[in-house]
Amino acid sequence: MIQGNIIRYGAMPVPFAALWSAEQGGMHVAHCPHVNHLALCDVDRRGEGKPIFGKPHMGRQRMLIVNDLCDLCAKPLKSRTKVSLSHAREVVSGAEGMTVMQVEPMVHKDCARICVEHCPSLKRDIRNGTLFVRQVLNHRHQVALLTAAAVEEFTGERRAGCAGHAKVELLRWKDRDLNWLTGGSSS
Questions:
Q1: Where are the domains of the chain?
Q2: Most exposed among 22, 85, 126, 186, judged by the fewest C-beta atoms under 10 Å?
């Protein structure tokens, strides 16, 4: 069932970038309008089959990150509290100092609440203590260019310099916890 940009699988809301089982196995090289470059692309059959939580559709993932859209509802993140739900750890990045580089698109705070309540992948990460909740204050995006060997591994076609996943680089953030996200304490 589709409500706005959100498709539900049964009662479960499915992130916009989630890969669906009908989209598996069709990865190919094509022009990606979101990065204006040749890129790895999945076939587009959103909503067909079963959602594969934790595995993004290449084109939708790039679209969300490059255009600053929410991973759940695909609406603009601008002027709203931006949240990162990721496994990515802080790293030192040259002149920027500490950064976080992640492939997971960001979400609105209210959408993040829905995600942690329903997503089986995030529930597992919460149980395992591997999920970082961050309020994002400043970020930018980057797009990885893949080697010919990597493109060949995914598509069977040997071609260098194709775009892969987009990445969000967090430049400033506040570490938060599930209580902050779900409306508990304001820590």
A1: 2-182
A2: 186
Yes or no: say if 104 and 168 are a contact pair by the CB < 8 Å rule. Answer: yes
Q: Token pair of 73, please?
A: 């509802």
* pTM recorded for the entire structure: 0.90
Q: Are 157 and 30 in contact (CB under 8 A)?
A: no
Closest C-alpha to 6, from 60, 57, 47, 52: 47
Q: How far is residue 130's CA from residue 142's CA, in Å, rounded to a whole number? A: 24
> Which of 55, 53, 72 lies closest to 3, judged by CA?
72
Burial class, 149, CB count within 10 angstroms (exposed 0-12 / middle 13-18 / buried 19+): exposed
Summarize pLDDT for 1-19 with one digit per residue, the tens: 445 678 999 988 999 999 9
Q: Smallest Cα–Cα separation from 85: which of 23, 33, 17, 145?
A: 17
Please give the span between the terminal C-alpha atoms of the chain, in angstroms, as a whole number.
Answer: 36
109-155 pLDDT tens trace: 999 999 999 988 888 999 999 999 999 999 999 998 999 999 999 99
